[in-house]
UniProtKB/TrEMBL annotation:
Coiled coil: none annotated. Keywords: GTP-binding, Lipoprotein, Nucleotide-binding, Prenylation. It is found in: Membrane. This is small monomeric GTPase. One of its GO terms (molecular function) is GTP binding. It catalyses: GTP + H2O = GDP + phosphate + H(+). Belongs to the small GTPase superfamily. Rab family. It comes from Anas zonorhyncha (Eastern spot-billed duck).
Length: 216
């Protein structure tokens, strides 16, 4: 599946990180977007409000710029964080395998996602900090069961050791691109359901009126 070939502008995809505070969302983003940089720091600083990183990737001959929004998990920032859910094509929902409360909060975050972004948005569930096996309180089977109940994919990850981080983002991006392709492939003119922008399909390329592809 090739939506945008070489020489075409990159497709901008908005992905939002969600989950309780201190589950490792920022470390996951850093591990993915800054290869080689230490994902974790001994001087942890909680995300205040919203931050984002951009990660250019090539997937199935499609140039993509992932705009990854890192939201604060603290209750006092909840309204601000969820306000950024609108217009997102994908969500990375994170809990900490050493913190049962963070796992139990996932259902509430899923509700927020559906209310703010709709039922058809792509979501992936990550059980982070799998490098801390001796401190585990959330069995892997619980994460698998929860993901199955919501019909989403699941990985256990380690931002510290960079375990399954790239695989998780690649799978989420692939699902988003497949949805874009299926919605656009058989029509000459299509209105994107996320932004209400009009896109034209010519010779298997998806181009907006100004020859750029922007979602979100």
């Amino acid at each position: 599946m090739a939506v945008l070939g070489q020489g075409q502008p990159a497709l901008l995809v908005k992905v939002v990180m969600a989950g309780e505070s201190c589950v490792g969302k920022t470390s996951i983003v850093r591990s993915y977007t800054e290869p080689g940089a230490p994902a974790c720091s001994s001087s942890y600083l909680a995300t205040i409000g919203i931050d984002f990183k951009v990660k250019p990737i090539m997937l199935n001959d499609t140039r993509v710029k992932l705009q990854i929004w890192d939201t604060a998990g603290q209750e006092r920032f909840h309204t601000l964080s969820t306000s950024y859910f609108r217009g997102a094509q994908g969500f990375v929902l994170v809990y900490d395998i050493t913190n049962m409360d963070s796992f139990q909060g996932i259902t509430s975050w899923m509700k927020d996602i559906h209310e703010k972004a709709g039922d058809e948005v792509d979501v992936i569930l990550l059980g982070n900090k799998c490098d801390k096996e001796s401190e585990r309180v959330v069995p892997k089977r619980k994460g698998e069961k929860l993901a199955w109940e919501h019909g989403i994919h699941f990985f256990e990850t380690s931002a510290k050791d960079n375990v399954n981080i790239e695989d998780a983002f690649s799978l989420l991006t692939k699902e988003i691109l497949e949805k874009v392709s299926s919605e656009c492939a058989y029509c000459e003119e299509v209105t994107c359901r996320w932004t209400k922008q009009t896109f034209y399909v010519q010779q298997s390329n998806v181009l907006s009126k100004d020859h750029s592809c922007l979602f979100g």
